[in-house]
Amino acid sequence: MHATLPLLLETDFPAIRRGPLQTLQVNLGYQCNQSCLHCHVNAGPRRMEVMSTDIVEAVIRFLDNSPVSTLDLTGGAPELNPAFRHLVSAARALDIAVIDRCNLTILSEPGYEDLAEFLADQGVEITASLPCYSRENVDKQRGDGVFEASIAGLRKLNRLGYGAEGSGCTLNLVYNPQGPSLPPPQDRLEADYKSHLGQDFDIRFNHLLTITNQPIARFGSTLISKGQFSDYMQLLRDSYRPANLEAVMCRSLISVDWQGYLYDCDFNQVLGIPLAGGPRRHLRELAAAGLPGMPIAVADHCFGCTAGQGSSCGGAFS
Description:
The protein is an alpha/beta fold. It has helices at residues 5-8, 53-64, 84-93, 115-122, 135-142, 146-159, 186-201, 217-225, 229-238, 266-271, 303-306, and strands spanning 23-27, 70-74, 97-102, 125-129, 171-175, 207-210, 253-256, 262-263.
């Protein structure tokens, strides 16, 4: 696989600094039951990196002694971590909102048949990847049979109240472009998703989040192989909007990798750029009170978050 970091380090992206910490985003491991082309952590069934119970306990202690209001769980498939349910239950007991970045197909895997019920009982917000409402496009990006399994997962969640107004069970879907282009307007695409999924499959959800593909890891390597890397980076730079700097997720979020080390975002995590661009720091060493005003490590890939309508783990900014 081609390395993208050397192509990104020299940058004129504006300097930015942190605000108060609101979200702890924790990568529970790179193991996944899928291997998707756009995956920026190169997750897959053969990845063995999984957060240990000791680090999970360190996460819980940090949550109990910090101003964090949201725990954002990602992977790989975060649910494959044996301590996933323990971490979710501990966070909810602390009255911390939990987001599970679910690939939907995990809900049908052997041994995980009751996972949807657990998530509903805990009031976990689900942010689920579904790169299109058509079988052909989803299976092309994520593998044969993924669309059918995703629809089955969505139906299971709907039966538990997910996606229904007033149920307290929030279900968001995530769209990533198929190739080197920016996502279309989020509100318009959300309407298309709701129309097609509702009419064709009687599926409901709350919101669609559009996320720009980052020129790193598996997707970045593919761009290099196809001779498209420079053109895609130029598209991101040409689409830069200064107003988006105010909403970038790194201002209020810290990313924790499966070993407990800290980064300004999960994209920097994949690239190996430590928190604030300084020496590598561990979650056990972090005092949340000292974060506001700290510089954020930036590189050329940061243009992916500020291009067009903007992009973050919470979708578009405008």
